[in-house]
Amino acid sequence: MNRILEVYLESRASRVKVGNLFKEGETFIFEYDMKYLNNSSSIYIGPDIPLTKRVHRSEKLFASFVDRIPSRKNPAYEDYCNQFNISKEETDEILLLATIGRKGPSSFIFELDETKAYLNLDYMYFRKELQLSLRDFSAIFQISLSTLQKLEKQSTHGHEALKRIEIYDRFPSVALFEINKNKRLIHAARVKYAEGILKERLKRV
After folding, report:
1. What do you get for the CA distance between the two ends of the chain, in Å?
2. CB-hemisphere CA count at 13 Å for 95?
3. Per-residue pLDDT tens for 61-99?
4. Residues paired with 17 in a beta bridge
């Protein structure tokens, strides 16, 4: 299960979504919410995560988040862990941030979303399972080729496109509807193969 840390900026009167922190493999990724990023009054989480771009990547947990996790040398560290019913040996940084690091001296608040995130790699596996080229997938599901290319290079998370693809992946009947609607755009043999895979999935539902 992929843990996602949702970050909010909280004041006395409001709470605003700042973005999400999660991992892809061994890489930490922080992605600013677009509304927050485009608001001229927004403040960055820290100097290592500036508002100059939406997506930030790091092989180690960003320093701005590291500062929110109490030191294990702190005499009260075990008490902090007990408060949230987690082991003092816990090493999952995102879980630690969502528990003992949830509230700190700043106005940024952390909330844990443990839903299974649909990621670039999930989309790529789905496309290859259907044996569709990038152009075929783009034509069948009416998603721009440039967006798919970026998803494949993992240079963007394209959440809106991934949400659509997740629906096709999780609900074969919806994918079959799209294929039937746009099948004239790709070779008949590739249509037949993709339909076969999806119909087999329907039998297992």
Report:
1. 21
2. 13
3. 999 999 999 999 999 999 999 888 888 899 989 989 999
4. 8
Burial of 175 by CB count in 10 Å (0-12 exposed, 13-18 middle, 19+ buried)?
Answer: buried
- Torsion angle, alpha carbons of 28, 103, 112, 51, to 10: -40
Which segments within 25-118 are labelled E, that is strand? 27-32, 55-58, 108-113
Mean pLDDT, rounded, of the chain: 89
In this structure, what token pair is assigned to residue 85? Answer: 């019913």
DSSP per-residue codes, 61-78: --HHHHTTSPPTTSTTHH
Residue 167 CA to residue 91 CA, distance in Å, equals 33
Q: Taking the CB of residue 68, how many other CB atoms lie within 10 A of it?
A: 21
- Exposure b/e, 101-132, CB count within 10 A at least 16 = b: bbebeeebebeeeeeebbbbebbeebbeebeb
The pLDDT tens digits of the residues spanning 22-48 come to 988 789 999 999 999 999 999 999 999
Task: Identify the residue whose tokens are 């599901």.
Answer: 141
Tokens of 163: 């949400």
